[in-house]
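Posting for a labmate who doesn't have an account.
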Amino acid sequence: MTSFRRPRARSSALALVLAAGSLAAVVAAPTSPAQAAGTTSPITGETIGETTTFSTAGEFTYTIPATAYALEVTLIGGAGTGPTATRGKGAKLVTVVPTVGLDPTLYVRVAANPAGLSPRRGGQASSIQTCSGSSESCVLTAGEDDPRLAVAGGGGGHGAFGNNTATVGGDAGVSTISGPGKGGKAGEGRDGGLGALGETPGQDGDMIPTQTPRARPGFGAPSTSEINGGGGDGWTGGGMGSSKPDSATGAAGGGAGSSYSIGNFSTLETSAEAPMVSIAPVYRGTYMRLDATPQRFVSGQATTFSTQITVNAGDGVPLPANTGTVDFTQGTRVLCADVPVGAGGAASCRAVLFRTDYIKYGQEFKADYTPSEGAYVTGTYNTVNVIIDAGATTNTLKYANKKLTATVKAKAPATGTPAGTVDFKVNGKKFKSVPLKNGVAVLAYTTKKKVSITAAFIPSDINFTGSDSAAVTVKP
């Protein structure tokens, strides 16, 4: 039976909080940005993905998710057969298996429950390996080319004829420093190795002499003899107990050799739990580079926010395309929503910003990455500060049909419609203030003598600077 469990967070994402100056300070005297464009966000924590559990005896396949860099696995080997009190226990191994260099398809072998085995048989091992156990080319070597990535050994079978409880099968070896367990001997179960009659301990399971159990799997030799308690290894499980009728106390089966993983153990112990294998992919954290181009600009000018999102913190592999979306925001305001991630983890947002937006929405400009289903990476975000200067204006004054008309416009690259008032001045002295409407102020005017008139734009907000028109001569 295969079951699934939804992803869980391994560690909470780190946050980058940037201190921003007060609005008054920004308006009165813009300074350099608090965070330069292109700053990389902190790396978010790893995430454990959906757990797949195999609990039915047999061999199954598992496909490594494309961006998973490791697998968090739990394996439980089978107990030996016999009455409960005489069964050697299997091993329980919890470990993290790195996926670098592995083909995407792995083979999962789940040990049978003791009830499914012949009497006096050792328990089977549970393992994760790179080839199918049914393939003739899948050869166990206990060396560099051994296909097993993680193994939880089986326990030894009971060694007495009938249900004699005096000869308990050996438990699977759980030593990480002493090598495979010892073989069984008459009347006594031992961990691992090849059992023998009499008081002489059975032969130990073999290993490459210079290797430790953490580096190589044990490789014991099970016995097929009815009078010898067989030892076991990570492939065949625990050894078989004696079944010779005239042996009231036969040799109990030895347990499997020490369990093994190419990764580091976090748990290695004997267990009476039912055999199983569970696998959960470990996804890389992500981190983001966020740029604003330009980072300093004038009110009403467009700027482009752009991201580069990478995975695999050690080498900064670009995030593949179509692996999520990015939201660009200014405080509570959404600038661009659900922007798809393109090649190289790129996403961009073009926005036209005004200085008054500081008051409405705040000064934090943020890009927030949300992974898509099956992306197998964590989300991340970053912030960047921008400086918006007041835009310059042009001010044009004309006199026609006994009317003074002042037209105030934003000067490129600024955009928008300036707001405020126009002070009309006659020979340098203020004569009348007229509010701008859609950038235009109109004043009816006649004179009995020749005068010089100018128009001064007084802005009512922080988006634009004031400006003076050229003088216009008005005659009677």
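Reply:
Got it, the structure tokens are right above this. The chain has three domains: 14-46+284-389, 47-283, 393-474.
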